[in-house]
Amino acid sequence: MSCAGAAAAACSLWRLPTGTRRPISAYGRRISIRFCSSGMTLDNINRAAVDRIIRVDHAGEYGANRIYAGQMAVLGRTSIGPVIQKMWDQEKHHLKKFSELMVALRVRPTVLMPFWNVVGFALGAGTALLGKEGAMACTVAVEESIAHHYNNQIRKLMEEDPEKYEELLQVIKKFRDEELEHHDIGLEHDAELVGTDLYSLLVIGAPYLEGSSICCSEERYPGRMQRSNIFVRKILKYVHFSLSV
Amino acid sequence: MVPRAFHASAMQLKASDAQKQQSPPSFSQQHSETQGAGEPHPDSSHSPPRYTDQGGEEEEDHESEEQLQHRILTAALEFVPAHGWTAEAIAEGAQCNTRLTHVLEEKQKLVQLGQAEKRKTDQFLRDAVETRLRMLIPYIEHWPRALSILMLPHNIPSSLSLLTSMVDDMWHYAGDQSTDFNWYTRRAVLAGIYNTTELVMMQDSSPDFEDTWRFLENRINDAMNMGHTAKQIKSTGEALVQGLMGAAVTVSSAQLTSALPLIPFLPCNPCSVSLTQKPYTGKLLIRLTVVQLQSLCPK
User: What distance lies between CA A13 and its chain's CA centroid?
Assistant: First the structure.
């Protein structure tokens, strides 16, 4: 009897503990002063959405970092090395920015970090073994899906409240533009010359898996790629979920 | 019997509150937070069943409802030493957590203003856990029962969320900026330390819980050492890998280059074999000689 009562009372008390007010601590404030000026505190934002956004973006940038590291490990001493290094440095900057945001907004990182560590490096190295075209095709695929992802997030934040999320929106927009630059650099360096045999198909399908969405891929990789894309798209729904775990 | 008496006394408290309060309508129209708790629970502790009612005014002060519940719970806590625990275990946890956050925030501000020195991580964590556990001292006789209530399957989600938010706060104010898997390991370790120290405190009878604080100190030192050891193992492993790679490169390049540098080495070996007493070293040297001879042969 008392147990049932306690349980019932406990259920209703659920909201009480978790509704504690948590302003951005002095510690977090030191890291990103700008967010306080735009009125974005831990109280008035849509915590669930912002948490998810920052977690997925951080995981994505970390994965991209590891992909470039893998590519550099194989192709670092070739002519394409400096290009990859430049893109890698920009990704490092992105990762640093999201890490700061993560600490300031008290967001937890994704559980699968060690997994993305290994998989990203393997993907980068694997595609780089296909040669320069393979590495560039991987870059194009990943950057395309990341840009698509960023666009979705920007749309979502704009729908909610553009002024409140102004700083965060600026950051995401800037990064999306830089990712699209990488995408164009990849195309410039003959990404489309990668072969369409089964091996290339699997290897190029994998970056889409990691990037977690496909858009506009049919135009780029005609023929057999279309069938694989439908299959990959189904899997991507689960990958998208796993990025935010 | 006991819960009923408690219920009655809490009712009295509510009545006295109602007289003080200016807006009785909001009082009687409190919206029940869980519709599932609609059935009457005569033996249940207090607030929520009494708030089951006919259509609450939702837009009205969600805030004042919360504040009111807060006040009732705080007042109810006074009855705990006499009547024991029911659901206040969770309320107590929540309130202690908010108090802890305030305390940590104050200390953080002091450090920033330069009035206090920045403490090392282990000292900071030790103080934070001690502060939090000291808040339990007023309820220490009945806390084991509270803990058992927290462990009930119904309550595990809320007690877990309390524990995780507390541990997260502690690490945040201790200066943790990890953004990889370390985030999880650190919090898991601190949660383990907190739980074991709490259990030790339940059975501690030393003056001012000295044994508990000593236990806490030892556990935190263990955790720190574990961290150091992990780092050392990692660096040793890396050094080992580098050494092996270097040896492999040396051997492969030695086999690839011409054998001339190795020939002067040959005559020395029979001499060294005769000089050494230990058969093992002799066999090793003979093997070395064989390897050199093999490397001389064209592949």
Answer: 36
Which residues on chain A are in Cβ contact (under 8 Å) with B162? 17
In chain B, alpha helices (H): 2-20, 24-28, 47-50, 62-83, 88-113, 121-134, 143-150, 156-174, 182-202, 210-256, 265-275, 279-296
Tokens 């408290």 locate to B13
Distance (Å) from the C-alpha of residue B195 to the closest C-alpha of chain A? 19
Chain B residues near residue A26 by CB distance under 8 angstroms: 105, 108-109, 112
Instruction: Say how far apart CA A198 and CA A193 lie, in whole Å.
Output: 15
Local structure of B232: helix, strand or coil: helix
From the centroid of its chain, how far is CA B18? Answer: 41
- Whether residue A197 contacts residue A178, with contact meaning beta carbons closer than 8 Å, is answered with no
Q: What is the pLDDT of residues B208-217, one digit of tens each?
A: 899 999 999 9
User: Which residues in chain A are contacts of B63 at CB distance < 8 A?
Assistant: none
Nearest to B158 among A3, A4, A10 (CB): A10
Percent of the residues in chain A that have a pLDDT greater than 70, as a whole number: 60
CB atoms near residue B263 (< 10 Å): 11
Q: Please give the single-letter amino acid code of residue B34.
A: T
The answer to whether A119 faces chain B, any CB pair under 8 Å, is: no
Looking at the complex, report in whole angstroms how far the Cα of residue B247 sits from the nearest Cα belonging to chain A: 21
**CB A22 to CB B105 under 8 A?**
no
| Cβ within 8 Å, pair B37-A12 | yes
User: Given this model, what pLDDT does residue B53 score?
Assistant: 39
CB contact under 8 A, B37 and A11: yes
Ordered DSSP codes for B258-295 = -SGGGTTHHHHHHHHHHH---HHHHHHHHHHHHHHHHH
Contact A27 B108 (CB under 8 A): yes
Q: What is the ipTM of this complex?
A: 0.70
Spatial CA neighbour of B226 closest among B262, B175, B264, B189 = B189
**pLDDT averaged over every residue in chain B:** 71
CA distances from A214 to A55, A177, B30, B190 (A): 20, 18, 50, 41
Which whole number is the average pLDDT over B284-296? Answer: 63
